[in-house]
UniProtKB/TrEMBL annotation:
This is Poly(Hydroxyalcanoate) granule associated protein (Phasin). It comes from Lysobacter enzymogenes. Residues 104-119, 128-141 have a biased composition (Basic residues). Residues 100-141 are annotated as: Disordered.
Length: 141
């Protein structure tokens, strides 16, 4: 008899019917799994957004660098030609300016400097008195 009791205790009887308690526990488990997956999905999405932002910043920085390099390259090619053209124009106009007597009046241009900083005012200007509102006209009834 001892053997039979051990076998019966080792094998619990399976409940063939689904009870409300089983449904409630299954629903709780489903809610817990759904919450965990939603939080993990949100974390993954945030990580992907940050990675995308980083890639966009890098691409914008690369594009800016390429544009700046291209502009400097074009500037290096164009600037000597502009100087040469300017010298040719001045050489051709020199005899005409001599005939007109305008050569001595022209001063050579100095190189452009950066903007001057704004002058600091020592004392604030006196404020004007506020304007008085216009007189109201009487309405005719």
């Amino acid at each position: 008899m001892g053997k039979r009791n051990k076998q019966a205790a080792a094998k619990p009887a399976a409940s063939p019917t689904t009870t409300l308690r089983h449904l409630w526990l299954a629903g709780l488990g489903l809610a817990a799994v759904a919450r965990r997956e939603a939080l993990a999905g949100a974390g993954r999405a945030a990580g992907q957004v940050e990675a995308l932002q980083r890639r966009v910043r890098e691409a914008a920085s690369d594009a800016r660098g390429n544009v700046v390099d291209g502009i400097e390259n074009v500037r290096g090619q164009v600037e000597p030609k502009v100087v040469q053209f300017s010298a040719e124009v001045e050489a051709r106009l020199a005899p005409v300016l001599d005939k007109l007597g305008l050569k001595g009046q022209r001063k050579p241009r100095a190189q452009r400097k950066g903007r001057k900083p704004a002058a600091k005012s020592k004392a604030p200007a006196a404020r004007r008195a506020p304007r008085k509102p216009a007189a109201r006209r009487a309405r005719k009834a």
